[in-house]
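Continuing the batch. This is chain 6 of the set; chains 1 through 5 are on the previous pages. Same settings as before, nothing changed between runs. Recording input and output for traceability.
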Amino acid sequence: MTDFASLPLSPALRPGLDALGYTVPTPIQAAALPPILEGRDLIAQAPTGSGKTAAFGLGLLQRLDPASPRAQALVLCPTRELADQVGRQLRKLATGIPNLKLSILTGGMALEPQVASLQAHDPQVVVGTPGRVQELARKRVLHLGGVRSLVLDEADRMLDMGFEEPVREIAGRCDKHRQTLLFSATFPETIRELARQLLHDPVEIADAGPASAPDIEQRFYDVDPAHRQKAVAGLLLRHRPESAVVFCNTRKDVDEVAGSLRQFGFSALALHGDMEQRDRDEVLLQLANRSCNVLVASDVAARGIDVEDLAAVLNYELPTDVDAYRHRIGRTGRAGRRGLALSLVAPREDARAQMVAAAQQRPPAREPSPLATGRPPQPPQAPMATLRIDGGKTDKLRPGDILGALTGEAGLAATAIGRIAIHPTRSYVAIAREQAARALARLEAGRIKGRRFRVRRL
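Output for chain 6:
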């Protein structure tokens, strides 16, 4: 398959492909779509950023009966962030399907509105996390008996997070003659056992990564464990990537490293599973709108986050297996760009470093780590800052209202204003960092759409 036009796709899917600018399929799309459209079950190795969402999205939308007002397709994701991302892309793919009802059902959100929505009408497509989908199915407000397409996205991470029992129960509630598609970045035995039990005669795609290896420069740096935080800052100051993710193995390290980097002048934020959902959402929003130049994260929290043009990945501590290392560094060097992967190696991690090096065609270079000695005169801060406005869709605010207030009463140039995101009760706007204080003062003193709103800087 060389292009989407050669596939037997419904004409209703063409507008979605056009809206997303899809013409030439990625390797996983080329390998997976023909058997998916034939109705075959599938197990595929699919790293983040490989184009898998469009692969299974086109398949489940093709099988959809728009005239049937019942749940027909279900996508299970390990995290709310990934579910939101998948749901948004499916909505774009379904642009040409009139009146499609798609619900995103995840934990970390109030249960009652989701129950009320499901009682009002059944969605035709559901994207959700296993725990919340299981809970709603048990309450008999989410009816899965008509689900003919079941997708398990990032199945390895769902099992790592303890979702095996909910996944099995949910699969048991779906149509026995359904099509099941399983996507996983790694293929441990637990995944193969799950596939044997839930899939029927599946097509297996063993490696659906890019056709050629990404261009990622890998380097190992020897470090004394007591100096890890100074080493992280030292490496970021030496290489000065525009954006970076620092991976830690524990939540405690995530908070400590983010705090340390802020002391050195970085616009660093932490992301881990102990945070409140709203705080996690605001961190991801700041990362997306360039108000954060270093994200410090645990593996589980970072799963499913799609960062455009991520310049570097830094391992605060090496993971315990090669697959986890590959998945981490695979977030840089995408779309033909050159990536950078830096890893700190303490003496007790030498065996891990040798294991990773042995699996590489070109073993990473190894050298002593530079140590930051203090806050630099010109700290590498993010170019933007984010203002939060305590008003949103329920107040009938639109992006144009906020833009107008900033360029009107606040007197900012349009070029100083970045992304604007409107949520039900809050809105967020990115402002050029050097003008953020001025914008905040003007908005606090002025009005948006003729009304005063509380505004604060994140």
